[in-house]
């Protein structure tokens, strides 16, 4: 049985015009959502809560970078694999406006504290407080810290204003990608 085209034109808008108008509307919403002044129209209480959330996110990223440094110092064979992830975590800290060093000293340089002490003072959640002697366990420790931090940031999205929420979402997604790279993708 063959289907023949209907002689009369279809009524209503075509699929392509609907898709184009939907894409245009979505683009307009995104442009309106991105104002030049992220604090425009925000009450002072919201700004201070957002500033506190931003500061905490920066400190968390610095602590995670210090944990990476401790693992790299304890397991130099992992440096090539972990250094790019650590550098990205430091960029996240900078994006949140963190002012501290975040363990920016070279992981091979002696900071006076052992890697175990550095890790104890460093991690989001401070899981075990030490860098495990086994490389796989050390990488699993980092993956757990990344996962915990990404989950906490994702949970905070509804509590912060738009621009900071977008930044937190982006960094949480990067953290989830780090977890993948540290586990399945590594």
Residue stretches low in confidence (pLDDT < 50, at least 5 long) are: 15-39, 104-123
Average per-residue pLDDT, rounded, comes to: 75
Helix vs. strand class = mainly alpha
Give the helix proportion (percent range).
Answer: 55-70%
- Coarse shape: globular
Strand content: under 5%
Main sheet characteristics: none
Order of helices and strands: HHHHHH
> How far apart lie the N and C ends?
55 Å
User: How many helical stretches?
Assistant: 6
Number of strands: 0
Radius of gyration: 23 Å
Give a concise summary.
Helix content is 62%, strand content 0%. The protein has 186 residues and is mainly α.
Description of the structure:
- With 186 residues, the chain is mainly α.
- Residues 15-39 and 104-123 have low confidence and may be disordered.
- The chain is globular, with a radius of gyration of 23 Å.
- The protein has helices at 15-33, 44-74, 79-95, 115-120, 135-155, 162-182.
- The longest helix is centred in the N-terminal third of the chain and has 31 residues, at 44-74.
Key structural traits:
186 residues, 6 helices, 62% helix
Tell me the layout of helices and strands.
Blueprint: H1 15-33, H2 44-74, H3 79-95, H4 115-120, H5 135-155, H6 162-182
Helix pairs in contact: 2-3, 2-5, 3-6, 5-6
């Amino acid at each position: 049985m063959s289907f023949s085209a209907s002689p009369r034109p279809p009524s209503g808008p075509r699929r392509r015009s609907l898709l184009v108008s939907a894409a245009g509307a979505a683009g307009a919403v995104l442009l309106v959502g991105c104002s030049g002044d992220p604090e425009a129209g925000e009450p002072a209480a919201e700004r201070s809560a957002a500033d506190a959330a931003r500061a905490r996110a920066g400190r968390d990223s610095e602590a995670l970078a210090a944990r990476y440094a401790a693992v790299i110092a304890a397991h130099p064979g992992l440096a090539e694999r972990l250094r790019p992830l650590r550098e990205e975590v430091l960029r996240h800290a900078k994006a949140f406006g963190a002012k501290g060093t975040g363990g920016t000293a070279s992981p091979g340089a002696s900071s006076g504290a052992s890697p175990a002490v550095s890790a104890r003072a460093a991690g989001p959640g401070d899981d075990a407080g030490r860098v495990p002697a086994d490389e796989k366990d050390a990488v699993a420790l980092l993956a757990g810290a990344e996962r915990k931090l990404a989950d906490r940031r994702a949970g905070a999205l509804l509590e912060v204003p738009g621009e900071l929420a977008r930044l937190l979402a982006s960094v949480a997604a990067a953290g989830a990608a780090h977890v993948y790279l540290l586990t399945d993708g590594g």
